[in-house]
Amino acid sequence: MPRNPYASVESTVLEVIAETPTIKTFKLRPSRVIPFKPGQFMQVSIPGVGEAPFTPSSFCGIRDTIEFTIVKVGRVTEQIHAVKPGDTVGLRGPYGNGYPLEAFRGKDVFVVGGGVGLAPLRTLMYSLFDMRKDLRKLVYRAGCRTPGDFLYWEEINSWAGNPDLDMKLTVDAQDGSRECHVGLVTSIMDFEGVDIPSAIGVACGPPIMMKFVTRSFLSFGFRPEHIYLSMEKNMSCGFGKCGHCRLGTVYCCKDGPVFTYDAIKDFEGIWD
Amino acid sequence: MKLLNRADSELLFEALARDHCLLFPIRRNDQLVLASSDKTPVAEAVIGEVRTADPLKALFLLAREKVAQGPSEETPGRRKPFCVIGAKACDLKGFKVLDSVFLDPDYGDPTYSALRAESILISSDCTTAIETCFCLAVGVKPWPEEGFDLNLSPVTGGFVVEEGSERGRELIAKHAALFGEPTAAQLAERDAARAKVEAGVRELVKASGVPDQGALEGRVMKQYESKLWEQEASTCVECGACNTVCPTCHCFLLYDQGGPSGPARFRIWDSCLIKDFAKVAGGANPRHALWMRLRNRFEKKFDFFKKVAGLYACTGCGRCISACPGKIDIRRVLRELVEDNA
Q: ipTM greater than 0.95, yes or no?
């Protein structure tokens, strides 16, 4: 008989970091090690209340703790935002495929993030830093609504000194809190020195942002099968049984959540 | 092929009831419903006729079932395996679809997997058809051809018994004294009865105009932008009854609840017609319009499953036709799908 795929692993909340007024990062210690890959997601639950899907935001090389950066947006996330260090939450997963890092070897990697999409991309960036010598150019472009909405502001800015990273940040509008370039994230997508035919494009953020970033990648000549998108759908089970997150002939949870653009471009509702 | 007379069949069922939850169809008003031998004498079993009102999936996947309890990784509440008597070919095809979803080595549903592995299915031929039957159009005969342990074909003097699995062969061997040999006349009677009910279903298929499944290949995608979805959805009241009674609809929601015995997680049936089915917490909804959700139901059954599992996820049982308060008739929708008027 298969093991119970519906059960969560009890995890202790070690630390809660307020990132913005509506976003917090939770550092958890699962009661047993849960290995995961960048881009895979898990179901985080409040016992007896409910669960919701999130992609970790910490380096997957750290084995005993996992961080999640979560926006307060619905019934479950409101309860998650109320947890304190010492509380117990549940973790189920990891689910899905994650980014195929092996396929990135020897290539230019152009990563574009927006809003809370910077959370899963932090996990990816740590892994890309870890394998930096195996990559050609590494580009990071990130945008948020205002500087105050920027996740990991100090940390990301500390990457600016890294000579192996080509990084630019932008915001839609200033809020007086920190200095930042103003403009849509597509306005800082410049490809000088990037070998477009072989380059890897990665986009993670709100659907509307991913739509325009994908359009930009395509217009500059990126191949549809080299553009990696992280799709957010209503995943409930996480392993292709409950039916909620189906896109055409694939389940976002099991076959994704990371898809190349060519794999999903003909399905209805990918940007909704 | 064996023969089992009615009195011996009851002895067999009573023997099987010792280790199994014995279920069989009984008549309630103008419908057949499943009853348990705990409460109903086996003599009331109606073996033959047509499918029950409820699909068999309702036993193997309860509408609301506890799947996790507290921090334990054990599956709670193991259920006694079933011995289902009188299952029909349409429900057996339903299992083919459900098995493709719920049995898998990595993430199989523990309760469903155990019940499927341990339950006995003693099916029976349909001996009549009702107006909503259209199994022949989706490749199902009104008698079981696969997916059963034993099949019973009602004839004068009892049932002609066919073995459909190793478990079925073992059952006959274990209860050999109950089984006899059918006569040539009884076998001929079985074939004649089958031919008669098949002709009856064929008439119904013809009258409704439902196309054969061979004509459905690629049609949902071809008619994806058709006006037919909006037209058909105009009477849909989003009740989800079609999902509930469908022997292949498998979608569910995991629902967490607190309680005196600690937090628990339930697997509850969900319906893809309901507005929030695909909606995410941030508000985005890829199927925000009702007609998109109706189209999605047909896409899932007649495009997704064909491409992913190699079969159409419709058994021709017609339950959704009877259940729909909006009179959305799947046979009409399928007919419109193959007509080129979009």
A: no
Contacts of B260 (CB under 8 A, 6+ apart): none
Residues B282 and B191 in one domain: no
Name the residue of chain A whose CA is nearest to B98's CA.
A241
Distance CA B128, CA B50 (A): 6
**pLDDT tens by residue, A162-206:** 999 999 999 999 998 888 999 999 999 999 999 999 999 999 999
Same domain, B191 and B264: no
Instruction: State the span(s) of chain A assigned CATH 2.40.30.10.
Output: 9-94
Claim to verify: residue B154 and residue B21 sit in the same structural domain:
yes
**C-alpha closest to that of B298 among B234, B242, B260, B257:** B242
Share of chain B above pLDDT 90, in %: 89
Say which of A8, A48, A234 has its CB closest to residue B257: A48
Report d(CA B168, CA B1) in Å as an integer.
11
The 10s digit of each residue's pLDDT in B5-47 is 999 999 999 999 999 999 999 999 989 999 999 999 999 999 9
- A266 to chain B, any CB pair closer than 8 A? The answer is no
Q: Say if domain A101-264 classifies as CATH 3.40.50.80.
A: yes
Q: Which pairs with CB-CB distance under 8 Å and at least 24 residues apart come from A70-75?
A: A70/A23, A70/A24, A70/A25, A70/A26, A70/A44, A71/A22, A71/A23, A71/A116, A72/A22, A72/A23, A72/A24, A73/A22, A73/B281, A73/B282, A74/B281, A74/B282, A75/A50, A75/B281
Q: In whole angstroms, what is the distance from residue B329 CA to residue B342 CA? A: 19
Assign A198 to helix, strand or coil. Answer: coil
- Residue numbers in A near B222 (CB within 8 A): none
Q: Which of B61, B138, B259 is nearest to A237 (CA)?
A: B61
Task: Confirm if B81 and B59 have CB atoms less than 8 A apart.
Answer: no
**pLDDT value at position B77?**
80
Verify that B247 and B219 share a domain, yes or no.
yes
Query: Residue B186: helix, strand or coil by DSSP?
Result: helix
Q: A-chain residues within 8 Å CB-CB of B223?
A: none
Of the three residues B174, B208, B242, the one that is the final residue of a domain is B208
pLDDT, residue B282, reads 78
Query: Pick from B208, B240, B274: which residue ends a domain?
Result: B208
What's the predicted TM-score (pTM) here? 0.93
- Whether the CB-CB separation of B176 and B250 falls below 8 Å is answered with no
Q: Are residues B233 and B169 in the same domain?
A: no
pLDDT for position B341: 60
Residue B131: which domain range? 2-208
Fold annotation for A9-94:
Elongation Factor Tu (Ef-tu); domain 3 (2.40.30)
